[in-house]
Amino acid sequence: MKKETITILGCGWLGLPLAQALVKEGYSVKGSTTREEKLEALHDAGVEPWLVRLDPEVNGDDIVAFLQSDTLIVNIPPLRRDDIVEYHIEQFSSLIDALGQSPVRSVLLVSSTSVYPALNREVTEEDAVDPESLAGQALLLVEEMLMQESAFQTTVLRFGGLIGYDRNPAKYLATMAEIAHPDQPMNLIHRDDCIRIITEIIRLKQWGEVFNACSPLHPLRKEYYGRAAEIAGLPAIPLSQSVETAPYKVVNSEKLISALHYHFLYPDPVVQLG
User: Fold this and answer.
1) Considering the domain boundaries, does residue 145 fall inside one?
2) pLDDT tens by residue, 146-163
């Protein structure tokens, strides 16, 4: 049986290898970039390349043709700008209008655990209230916009900090005079797990859901960066001696693990360092 067509809006650090993985699974994949020089890389990966921008209105290639798919994966994080809340809402309003002219019936939104405030405890999917950052506020609002649409079903996937491959903490150690908030737990996830989780959501048709996606173990900052320095052969980085306790959150991913029967490739972010 022929597998469905998937469109990926945003083929960057996560989106391009995701597109490659879906092609290997037998899906027909369309992928977008905002830069013409990246179109060839998409084509070489077996992905139908498209030039699409949301700035904030949709422009570029024919958006109606781009969205001739069964499933849309949206992977466009909020930009760093003072008006990002309003701007991100305008981006998604334009996208939703375009979806109204498409056959797309399933949408997967790549979101972030920045939608959670630091509550100094474990947080679950129900705790996304009053995000502290502008990016978190923008994401939570567009999550709600998509979830309220009746023409298609949306699943929201809230990733922790993305790690793996060239996102190695050793790259930043030289710029760190000390490890700030050394006892603060981290919420991280390897790119390979991100790709497998998205693939499983599509395969199992887990639509209309909100999932956290973080590795089950949450190393302290001093453990994570300390191990990275050790592996890189660098001197141990001093720990901040500040007596202030940094606010934190520990993101619980049990809902996703249960729904997908998922086993993390990298349950411990420290181990993946090597």
Assistant:
1) yes
2) 999 999 999 999 999 999
Tokens found for residue 128: 């996304």
Overall average pLDDT of the 194-215 stretch: 98
> Using one digit for the tens of pLDDT, what is the confidence trace for 93-115?
999 999 999 999 999 999 999 99
Q: Are 64 and 104 in contact (CB under 8 A)?
A: no
Domain range spanning residue 209?
A: 5-164+189-218+250-267
Q: Calculate ∠ Cα 240-241-243, nearest 5°.
A: 115
Whether the Cβ atoms of residue 106 and residue 153 lie closer than 8 Å to each other: yes
User: Do 25 and 47 contact (CB within 8 A), yes or no?
Assistant: no
How many Cβ atoms from other residues are within 10 Å of residue 125's Cβ?
Answer: 19
β-pairing, 58-60 with 48-54? antiparallel
Q: What pTM did the predictor assign? A: 0.96
CATH code for the domain of 212 = 3.40.50.720
Cα separation, 265 vs 272, whole angstroms: 9
Give the phi and the psi of residue 144 in degrees, each rounded to 5: -65, -40
Q: Locate tokens 């639509």: which residue? A: 207
Residue pair 268/190 in contact (Cβ under 8 Å)? The answer is no
Domain count, the chain: 1
